[in-house]
């Protein structure tokens, strides 16, 4: 194996290469401001979807309510700035705090539910948030939405004239979210979440405090979603109930991960790179296509990908690899310095019962 | 007092249609365990079917029920055959992964339907106008003819479904599969056939409900999202796979919605419903109308 091949086989190596590549894109590839905005939004939604992956991908609790945390991040930042004239960075931090508190409160109620019931409850709750935000218009701005004041070039207020700065902030956000989910996946918590995903009764019988683990997982997974919401708010400078809590955002965060591969470390990355540009490029407000056309294409692409492989793109790659002799996988994981584990640690850790590969 | 009676009557009349499309969902969800995220959009499709037949052929939605029912049945059969069956036939896939796959695939179908409708009909509301325009007044309570007739149709279609499930061979096979799927297949009931039939019939009932609903409810391409949650609320309240429970719960859901709309605020009518839903899920996940224990 060549040195390069070895580098690309480890998550850290591949991650670094991808990060350098992504961060340098504006220098040699991205020329127009439109492509730059598409790329920035891709990275923002990638971060939200990476957060989703912690509780829903690793933990198997499929949430259709991560838009709650995304929207709370966006609205907290915006409201503190517009109504109380607080510094934008303080708003970003408080947005995360609000989202985590809400995650614990909502999780305490909804995480007692299993399977589809959890998904439906979170979906209903995000729609409740959307309706309530629209209803209390005196405070939230209602259906009309909230617009941030134009500040010009004020780095101290999270406002930059040069939009490339937002791109790099979004890159940093996505990279941090990726590293965070990677660390969760390798940690005891990640192991417990995956055990719950495979079989909650068996996990509990082995001493996993399922409810507490899921609650911590949900709280962690709310952080990238909330940060994505705040950065989105600062970047777009406009939010309304539908683009914060609506059904489209709620499902998009989940669909990105499903298309890439839910429960796979790289799943949300691949899903976001495919789906967000697709949706933005065909957007009717920027082109001659009739309204709805972009989402028709979007839905067809999702249908085709999941029709071919219901477990997402990452599973296509792994299935092709399976026939090879499992010599590499037999080594005890994590003992040599350049981590020899393949990208997808779930399939490579033989001790964990996982339903992801049909075992 | 009159306001309360009026609210209850409106709730029950719209609830009948909720009950009808929810019994369609409970057939699908309770038997095939497919989480049909496109269910609300099949209601919308039925409504646009009625609007289209009325606008182009002048056909009353009451006659339009027949073509809409046939088309919905066929669409249901196609969606089942092409999409749902696919997730079950992938090699080495676990039951949970297959279910998640169905979830996202039906979600994509939902996005596809609502945006195709947006492309062809535009975002403005459409309605079938001037059919059944009379308004009756009974002891100070106003009842619109369209609402009354559509409630009665929903009731009749539901009773037909109930009789079919009780008396016909297919109905018995379906009920046997609900009770114990392994035993049913052991006595020679082909589960694939039962799944396909219940899925198609479920979509057919939904299409009929939409067609009738169009007589008084304006439709937009995004109407379906609200119906989806209503259908799931109703199915969960009635108890999974419980057809009668779904219909009764539909009436209840209609009442909750109307009471919130009248006594709290019109734009909050769904908040009351969704919060009631989360409460029911947390407190009585087996359904408030079901004596059975919940199964995961």
TrEMBL record, chain A:
<feature type="transmembrane region" description="Helical">
    <location>
        <begin position="88"/>
        <end position="109"/>
    </location>
</feature>
<dbReference type="GO" id="GO:0015658">
    <property type="term" value="F:branched-chain amino acid transmembrane transporter activity"/>
</dbReference>
<feature type="transmembrane region" description="Helical">
    <location>
        <begin position="215"/>
        <end position="237"/>
    </location>
</feature>
<keyword id="KW-0812">Transmembrane</keyword>
<protein>
    <submittedName>
        <fullName>ABC-type transporter, integral membrane subunit</fullName>
    </submittedName>
</protein>
<feature type="transmembrane region" description="Helical">
    <location>
        <begin position="165"/>
        <end position="185"/>
    </location>
</feature>
<keyword id="KW-0472">Membrane</keyword>
<feature type="transmembrane region" description="Helical">
    <location>
        <begin position="288"/>
        <end position="308"/>
    </location>
</feature>
<feature type="transmembrane region" description="Helical">
    <location>
        <begin position="12"/>
        <end position="30"/>
    </location>
</feature>
<keyword id="KW-1133">Transmembrane helix</keyword>
<dbReference type="InterPro" id="IPR043428">
    <property type="entry name" value="LivM-like"/>
</dbReference>
<dbReference type="InterPro" id="IPR001851">
    <property type="entry name" value="ABC_transp_permease"/>
</dbReference>
<dbReference type="Pfam" id="PF02653">
    <property type="entry name" value="BPD_transp_2"/>
</dbReference>
<dbReference type="GO" id="GO:0005886">
    <property type="term" value="C:plasma membrane"/>
</dbReference>
<keyword id="KW-1003">Cell membrane</keyword>
<feature type="compositionally biased region" description="Polar residues">
    <location>
        <begin position="348"/>
        <end position="359"/>
    </location>
</feature>
<feature type="transmembrane region" description="Helical">
    <location>
        <begin position="62"/>
        <end position="82"/>
    </location>
</feature>
<feature type="transmembrane region" description="Helical">
    <location>
        <begin position="36"/>
        <end position="55"/>
    </location>
</feature>
<feature type="transmembrane region" description="Helical">
    <location>
        <begin position="116"/>
        <end position="136"/>
    </location>
</feature>
<feature type="region of interest" description="Disordered">
    <location>
        <begin position="321"/>
        <end position="359"/>
    </location>
</feature>
TrEMBL record, chain B:
<dbReference type="Pfam" id="PF02653">
    <property type="entry name" value="BPD_transp_2"/>
</dbReference>
<feature type="transmembrane region" description="Helical">
    <location>
        <begin position="260"/>
        <end position="283"/>
    </location>
</feature>
<dbReference type="InterPro" id="IPR001851">
    <property type="entry name" value="ABC_transp_permease"/>
</dbReference>
<feature type="transmembrane region" description="Helical">
    <location>
        <begin position="42"/>
        <end position="59"/>
    </location>
</feature>
<keyword id="KW-0812">Transmembrane</keyword>
<keyword id="KW-1003">Cell membrane</keyword>
<feature type="transmembrane region" description="Helical">
    <location>
        <begin position="142"/>
        <end position="165"/>
    </location>
</feature>
<keyword id="KW-0472">Membrane</keyword>
<keyword id="KW-0029">Amino-acid transport</keyword>
<dbReference type="GO" id="GO:0006865">
    <property type="term" value="P:amino acid transport"/>
</dbReference>
<comment type="similarity">
    <text>Belongs to the binding-protein-dependent transport system permease family. LivHM subfamily.</text>
</comment>
<keyword id="KW-0813">Transport</keyword>
<dbReference type="GO" id="GO:0022857">
    <property type="term" value="F:transmembrane transporter activity"/>
</dbReference>
<keyword id="KW-1133">Transmembrane helix</keyword>
<dbReference type="GO" id="GO:0005886">
    <property type="term" value="C:plasma membrane"/>
</dbReference>
<dbReference type="InterPro" id="IPR052157">
    <property type="entry name" value="BCAA_transport_permease"/>
</dbReference>
<feature type="transmembrane region" description="Helical">
    <location>
        <begin position="194"/>
        <end position="219"/>
    </location>
</feature>
<protein>
    <submittedName>
        <fullName>ABC-type transporter, integral membrane subunit</fullName>
    </submittedName>
</protein>
<feature type="transmembrane region" description="Helical">
    <location>
        <begin position="225"/>
        <end position="253"/>
    </location>
</feature>
<feature type="transmembrane region" description="Helical">
    <location>
        <begin position="103"/>
        <end position="122"/>
    </location>
</feature>
<feature type="transmembrane region" description="Helical">
    <location>
        <begin position="12"/>
        <end position="35"/>
    </location>
</feature>
């Amino acid at each position: 194996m060549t040195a390069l091949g070895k580098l690309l086989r480890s998550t850290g190596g591949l991650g670094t290469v991808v990060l350098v590549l992504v961060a340098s894109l504006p220098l040699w590839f991205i020329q127009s401001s439109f492509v730059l905005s598409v790329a920035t939004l891709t990275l923002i939604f990638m971060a939200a979807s990476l957060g989703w992956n912690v509780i829903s991908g690793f933990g198997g609790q499929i949430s259709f309510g991560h838009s709650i945390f995304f929207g709370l991040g966006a609205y907290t930042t915006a409201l503190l700035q517009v109504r109380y004239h607080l510094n934008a960075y303080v708003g970003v931090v408080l947005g995360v705090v609000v989202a985590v508190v809400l995650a614990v409160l909502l999780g305490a109620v909804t995480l007692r539910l299993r399977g589809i019931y959890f998904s439906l409850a979170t979906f209903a709750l995000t729609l409740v948030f959307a309706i309530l935000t629209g209803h209390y218009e005196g405070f939230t701005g209602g259906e009309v939405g909230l617009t941030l004041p134009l500040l010009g070039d004020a780095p101290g207020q999270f406002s930059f004239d040069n939009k490339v700065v937002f791109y790099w902030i979004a890159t940093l956000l996505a990279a941090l979210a990726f590293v965070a989910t990677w660390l969760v996946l390798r940690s005891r918590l990640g192991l417990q979440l995956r055990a719950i995903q495979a079989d909650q009764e068996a996990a509990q019988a082995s001493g996993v405090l399922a409810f507490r683990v899921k609650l911590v997982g949900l709280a962690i997974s709310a952080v990238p979603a909330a940060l994505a919401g705040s950065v989105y708010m600062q970047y777009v400078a406009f939010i309304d109930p539908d683009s914060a809590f609506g059904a489209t955002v709620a499902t998009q965060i989940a669909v990105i991960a499903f298309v890439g591969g839910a429960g796979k470390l790289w799943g949300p990355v691949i899903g976001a790179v495919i789906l967000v540009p697709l949706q933005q490029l065909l957007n009717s407000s920027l082109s001659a296509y009739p309204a709805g056309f972009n989402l028709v294409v979007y839905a067809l692409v999702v249908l085709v990908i999941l029709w071919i492989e219901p477990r997402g793109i990452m599973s296509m790659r792994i299935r092709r690899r399976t026939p090879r002799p499992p010599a590499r996988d037999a080594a005890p994981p994590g003992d040599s310095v350049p981590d020899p584990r393949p990208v997808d640690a779930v399939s490579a850790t033989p001790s964990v019962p996982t339903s992801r590969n049909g075992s | 007092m009159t306001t309360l009676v009026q609210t209850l009557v409106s709730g029950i009349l719209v609830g009948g249609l909720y009950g009808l499309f929810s019994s369609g969902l409970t057939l699908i969800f309770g038997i095939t365990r497919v989480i049909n995220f496109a269910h609300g959009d099949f209601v919308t499709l039925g409504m646009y079917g009625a609007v289209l037949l009325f606008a182009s052929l002048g056909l009353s939605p009451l006659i339009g029920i027949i073509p809409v029912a046939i088309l919905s049945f066929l669409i249901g059969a196609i969606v089942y055959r092409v999409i749902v069956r696919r997730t079950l036939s992938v090699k080495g896939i676990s039951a949970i992964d297959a279910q998640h796959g169905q979830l996202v695939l039906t979600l994509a179908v939902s996005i596809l339907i609502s945006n195709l409708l947006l492309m062809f009909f535009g975002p403005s509301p459409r309605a079938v106008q001037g059919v059944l325009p009379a308004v009756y007044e009974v002891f100070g309570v106003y009842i619109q003819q369209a609402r009354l007739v559509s409630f009665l149709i929903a009731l009749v279609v539901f009773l037909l479904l109930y009789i079919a499930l009780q008396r016909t061979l297919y109905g018995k096979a379906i009920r046997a599969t609900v009770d114990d799927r392994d035993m049913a297949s052991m006595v020679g009931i082909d589960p694939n056939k039962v799944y396909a039939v219940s899925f198609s019939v479920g979509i057919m009932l939904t299409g009929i409900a939409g067609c009738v609903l169009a007589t008084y409810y304006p439709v937009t391409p995004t109407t379906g999202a609200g119906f989806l949650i209503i259908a799931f609320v109703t199915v969960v309240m009635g108890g999974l796979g419980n057809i009668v429970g779904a219909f009764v719960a539909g009436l209840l859901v209609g009442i909750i919605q109307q009471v919130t709309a009248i006594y709290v605020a019109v734009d909050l009518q769904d908040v009351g419903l969704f919060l009631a839903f989360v409460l029911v899920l947390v407190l009585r996940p087996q359904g408030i109308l079901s004596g059975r224990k919940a199964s995961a």
